[in-house]
Amino acid sequence: MLTLSLACFRTGPKFAALQGLQRPKQLLRDSIITSCKQQQQRTTTQPAPRSASGGALRSLLLFGASGCGKTQLARAVAAEMGAPLVYVPPSELLGRHQVTGRDIIRAIFAVAARQAPAVVVFDDAHLVFPKQGLAGAANVTGGRAADAHAAMHAMQQMRTELMVQCEQLAQGTGSTASTSGSTDAGAAATAAPGSSTPWGCGGGNNRQQQGGQGAQGSAKPQAPVVVVLATHSPELLDEGVRRCMGLRVQLGLPGPDEREAVIFAAMVEADAALGVADVEQLVR
C-alpha cells in the first residue's frame, strides 16, 4: 500500500492580490486559465492555445530565484481557475524506492483527477526529476549503495510517467485512462494536516467506475488538470521533462516599484505604519 500526504489549498490569492509579475500573469491568463475555464463551461467554439506539439497547454514550468513568487503564482493560477491546488513537496517523493515511481506519479494524478479541475504543483522539481547522473541517490538513500540503484530507477520511472501524464493531459486523454495501471500496487493519498480535506484513492478502481459512467456520454470533455513544476535550478531538471512542459515562464526578481508595492501591501495587511524614509530604505 502506497501512502502519500498531499497538501490541498482550496483558497489562495488571485492575480489582483499579487504585486508585480504583470507579464507572467497575463501570459498565464491568456494561455492556460482562459482555456481551462472554457473547457469547464463547454460553451466556446474558439480553439484553445496549443503547445508546440499541438496539444492543449496543461503543463507549466515556473523557474526563477528562490523567493521570487513561484509557489504563490501557482496558487494564484488555481484560484483564478476556481480549482484546488495539490501541493507535492519533494520530501513526499524522494526515497520511496520501495515502490515503483510509476505508481507514485499515477497516484498523485488520480487524486487530482478526482478533484478536477485541479492544479498539481511539484515544488523543487529539479530534485525529483533531475538530469540522469545528477539524481544524488547517495544523498537520498543515506549513502547505502544497495538502495542507490533502486532510488535511481524509481526516479527514472517518475520522470517517464510524468511525461506520459503531461502528454495525455495535453491531448485530453489524461487522468482516467492513466490511473488504470496503478490497481496492482494500490494507493492511498491524504491531505496533510492543516489542509482542507482528506482524500482516499484506491489505485484506479473508483476512478474507472466513474469514468465508465461518463463513457456513455463521451462528448463531455474532462475537467482540466494543470501540472506546474517549480524550480530555482532549471538547468538541473531532466531535459525530457523540461521539453514536455507546454509553457515555460521565468520569474525575475522584483524591481523597486514592485518591492514598494509588496511592502505597502504587507503594511496594510498587518495594520503597520512605517515612515516614507523607512520604506525607501527597505525598497533599496
CATH class placement of the largest domain: Alpha Beta
Assign the structural class, choosing from mainly alpha, mainly beta, alpha/beta, alpha+beta, or little secondary structure.
alpha/beta
Strand order of the largest sheet: 5-1-3-4-6-2-7
Would you give the CATH topology of the largest domain?
Answer: Rossmann fold
Quick one: overall form?
globular
Residue fraction in strands = 5-15%
User: H/E element string?
Assistant: EHEHEHEHHHEHEHEHH
Largest sheet: number of strands, sense, barrel closure: 7 strands, mixed
The CATH homology group name of the largest domain: P-loop containing nucleotide triphosphate hydrolases
Radius of gyration from the CA trace?
20 Å
General description of the model:
By secondary structure, the chain is α/β, with parallel strands linked by helices. It has two domains: 252 residues, Rossmann fold (3-Layer(aba) Sandwich); 30 residues. It is 43% helix and 14% strand. The chain has ten helices and seven strands. Strands 5-1-3-4-6-2-7 form a seven-stranded mixed sheet, sandwiched between helices. β3, α3 and β4 form a beta-alpha-beta unit. α1 runs parallel beside α2 and α9 crosses α10. The chain is globular. About 16% of the residues have low confidence.
